[in-house]
Each structure stands twice: as C-alpha cells, then as structure tokens.
Amino acid sequence: MSKSGSATERQATTGDGSSAPLASVAALETATKDTQTVTAEGRSVQEPLEGVRVRPATTQLDERGSVCEIYSPAWGFTDEPIVWVYQTTIRPGQAKGWVLHLEQDDRLFFSTGDVKVVLYDARPESPTFGKVNVHCFGESNRGLLRIPAGVYHAIQNVGQQDAVFVNLPTQPYNHERPDKYRLPLDTPEIPYEL
Q1: Maximal CA-CA distance, the chain
Q2: CA proximity to 109, closest of 50, 156, 69, 162
Q3: Which range of residues forms the domain containing residue 25?
Q4: I need a surface site. Which of 52, 139, 142, 176 has the fewest CB within 10 A?
Q5: Per-residue pLDDT tens for 116-167?
C-alpha cells in the first residue's frame, strides 16, 4: 500500500492543463516534455520562414520501378526560370553548411538518403528574422524546398547511406565571384546546434 504523496500517487499537470498520475519513474521531474510538432492532419506547426516553400513530391511506383517529378513550371512554385542544375551528395554523418546567398534563391530537391535541413533567417527586414526552421526529407518524404537569399542553411545526413539532392538555383553559378558566404558548423551566430 502506498503512502499519500508517494511517486505513484502524485499528480502531474499535462500540456492541456488536466492532471494525470505520475508513474514511479526515475528523473521524471527533470525530463523535458515534448511539444506539438504536427497537427492531427500531419501538417507542421512551425512557422515557416518568410519566402520558404516546401512542395512534397509524389513517387509513382509500378513493377518496373519508380518515377518522381522534380520540378514543373505548371506548379507555380516559383516564377524564375530554370537556369542551372547540379546534384550534390553528403556522406553519412556529415553536414554541409552554414551557407548563405545574397543574390540567388536555392530550390533543392531531396530524393535519396535521409537529411535534416536547418534554415536560419538572417534578413533584418524579414518578419521571421532570427527564427529557425527544421525540415526532414528522405526517400519516403521526397520534396522540393525553396530557400530565399539571406537565409543561412545547413544540411546534415542523418541516414546510413549517401544522401543526394539536386539544386535548381535561380541564378547560374558565377565561378569568378561565387555568391556563397559561409559560417562554420559550430558558429555561435546561429541558435541551432547540428
């Protein structure tokens, strides 16, 4: 028989303000309770950074294999034409970033491997200045991501195989004067630790 006030009888306040009995669990009082990340319909609750867009991709399968569309002007995803396209890989456990462009937007399509993409809005005039977004993509969650100029981004391979993505930037690469500005992955300038 337990005493009044023991761990098995104590009450905890849940996220909705109601009470629930605490189980006898070590260190529960120092644990952090998860917060909501998606709605009941599966949509992210994070406030998207100004100008960032995500278009989930649909993969069509049949007995021969699969096909997945990367980009179509008919989608209205962007007004800028396709001017340059390249593919990048990231090895397991590795990260690329932080990188920022001042003149171009990136349009990244993630198709193979599992990645975490972290965005930091560095535009003082933006309503989402100083905010961070995190997006995850993989073979079961392919998608096209638009990253506006002025938003730092880093991409980390969180899977067990090489991750592959395609970039369709809004401007061709300038080999003599690259529009790329970098911070180290462990920079204190961005409030996110990879």
Answers
A1: 78
A2: 69
A3: 1-33
A4: 176
A5: 999 999 999 999 999 999 999 999 999 999 999 999 999 999 999 999 999 9
